[in-house]
């Protein structure tokens, strides 16, 4: 499975692509950070990110994209920019029918370090170790993008099992409701005689 990890942001947007096979072995294929000037107009910044992501999707052909889920922070404008960048990326994936999964920062930290409150240095150190990189990925946005991809690789089997279980439960509920409706109808018909 080929996973593109994205740490969305307007000023710096981390992009990575990893590949995994069996077990927990993961190979880093590419990592970079798209930068946009803070004094540029928002539509131009989003276009720069969109163009870069489109190029990555056309070059690397990922099976799935893992994007950091935006959550409330102190700076609302930062949250909005991050959400807008993530939306541009999700849209590019949807145009190509590529699945998109969102992971919270604590899920990523827990998957990579075993600690949902790990700091950036710990995440970077573990990403370097897991991927057997010769040097630590910099800046932190690059390491975060790789961490997102790793997180998804390790969580994907569980997510697939959960989706299958939810689908089975929904089917069983539907069958049970149909059975109850049939019994109620039969009871009503029997009472009317």
TrEMBL record:
Active-site residues from the entry: 7, 68, 141
Record-listed E.C. numbers: 3.1.21.10
Binding site for Mg(2+) 1: 7, 141
Protein name: Crossover junction endodeoxyribonuclease RuvC
InterPro entries: RNaseH-like_sf, RNaseH_sf, X-over_junc_endoDNase_Mg_BS, X-over_junc_endoDNase_RuvC
GO process terms (BP): DNA recombination; DNA repair
Function: The RuvA-RuvB-RuvC complex processes Holliday junction (HJ) DNA during genetic recombination and DNA repair. Endonuclease that resolves HJ intermediates. Cleaves cruciform DNA by making single-stranded nicks across the HJ at symmetrical positions within the homologous arms, yielding a 5'-phosphate and a 3'-hydroxyl group; requires a central core of homology in the junction. The consensus cleavage sequence is 5'-(A/T)TT(C/G)-3'. Cleavage occurs on the 3'-side of the TT dinucleotide at the point of strand exchange.
Stored NCBIfam families: ruvC
Keyword Protein transport: no
Annotated PANTHER family: CROSSOVER JUNCTION ENDODEOXYRIBONUCLEASE RUVC (PTHR30194)
Record's cofactor remark: Binds 2 Mg(2+) ion per subunit.
Species for this entry: Mycobacterium florentinum
Entry's family note: Belongs to the RuvC family.
Keywords annotated in UniProt: Cytoplasm, DNA damage, DNA recombination, DNA repair, DNA-binding, Endonuclease, Hydrolase, Magnesium, Metal-binding, Nuclease
Subcellular location: Cytoplasm
């Amino acid at each position: 499975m080929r996973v593109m990890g994205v740490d969305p942001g307007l000023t710096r947007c981390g992009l990575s692509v990893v590949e995994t096979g069996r077990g927990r072995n993961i190979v880093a294929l590419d990592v970079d950070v798209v930068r946009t000037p803070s004094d540029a107009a928002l539509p131009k910044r989003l276009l720069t990110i969109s163009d870069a992501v489109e190029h990555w999707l056309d070059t690397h052909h990922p099976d799935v994209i893992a994007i950091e889920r935006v959550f409330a922070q102190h700076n609302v404008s930062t949250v909005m920019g991050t959400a807008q960048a993530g939306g541009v990326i999700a849209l590019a994936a949807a145009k190509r029918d590529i699945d998109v999964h969102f992971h919270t920062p604590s899920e990523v930290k827990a998957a990579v370090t075993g600690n949902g409150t790990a700091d950036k240095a710990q995440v970077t150190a573990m990403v370097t170790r897991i991927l057997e990189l010769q040097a630590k990925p910099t800046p932190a946005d690059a390491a975060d993008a790789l961490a997102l991809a790793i997180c998804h690789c390790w969580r994907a089997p569980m997510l697939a099992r959960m989706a299958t279980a939810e689908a089975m439960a929904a089917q069983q509920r539907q069958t049970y409701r149909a059975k109850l409706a049939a019994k109620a109808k039969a009871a009503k018909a029997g009472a009317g005689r």
